[in-house]
Amino acid sequence: MNLGNILHKCRLNNLVMSKPQKIQTSFIGKQAEDLSQLIREQIKPIYDSLGIIVPVKSCSIIHYLKKHNELSVTDLAKHLKQSHQLVKQKLPKLQNLGLIESKSDVNDKRRTTYHLTEKGIEQAILLNENSLTNVYQHLSDEIGANLHQVLENAIDGLKQKDLLTRFNASH
């Protein structure tokens, strides 16, 4: 599916609303998952062509380790606003790819910290040099909505008032 088809589908499904409308479907969660999957699928050939081996869903870990040098799972989860468990699940693959290493904290043997290897640093540099920020900005311009802001607003809105509360209020 090319970008034109995606944009057409977005317009057909009223993903961008210029004024409040009643949403015709309750499948927003599925659409969010579909968007996430589509982005992962479309980034893969870009990364392959650039020699980037970092899994798409783990790029943020590489970025934060590059910025902060060494972090624990708890610190990474806090910075990424992800669960401890989710972050911890991603780390073995990054270790197997030779991108990160772990070491036990000398002051607290229960605490493990992670840092980039040379290969990880090289991959972080490639990610930074080949940012998709402009691509997402062009997509936002084409669909007439700041995609990042719309997603952030939806996440923030659900954190402030969960779906159960919203459901109960609507019935």
CATH architectural type of the domain at 34-131: Orthogonal Bundle
Question: What's the CATH first level of the domain at 34-131?
Answer: Mainly Alpha
Structural class: mainly alpha
Rg, Å, rounded = 19 Å
Low-pLDDT parts are: 2-8
3D shape: globular
Largest sheet: 3 strands, antiparallel
Mean pLDDT: 87
Strand share of the residues? 5-15%
- In order across it, which strands form the biggest sheet? 1-3-2
Q: At the third CATH level, what is the topology name of the domain at 34-131?
A: Arc Repressor Mutant, subunit A
Helix content: 55-70%
Number of H/I helices: 9
N to C succession of SSEs = HHHEHHEEHHHH
Strand segment count: 3
Distance between termini?
A: 38 Å
Provide the CATH superfamily of the domain at 34-131.
Winged helix-like DNA-binding domain superfamily/Winged helix DNA-binding domain
Which terms would index this structure?
171 residues, mainly alpha, three-stranded antiparallel β-sheet, 3 strands, globular
Task: Characterise the protein shown here.
Strand 2 (100-104) and strand 3 (112-116) form a beta hairpin. The longest helix is centred in the N-terminal third of the chain and has 23 residues, at 28-50. With 171 residues, the chain is mainly α. It is 64% helix and 8% strand. The protein has a domain at 34-131: Winged helix-like DNA-binding domain superfamily/Winged helix DNA-binding domain (Arc Repressor Mutant, subunit A).
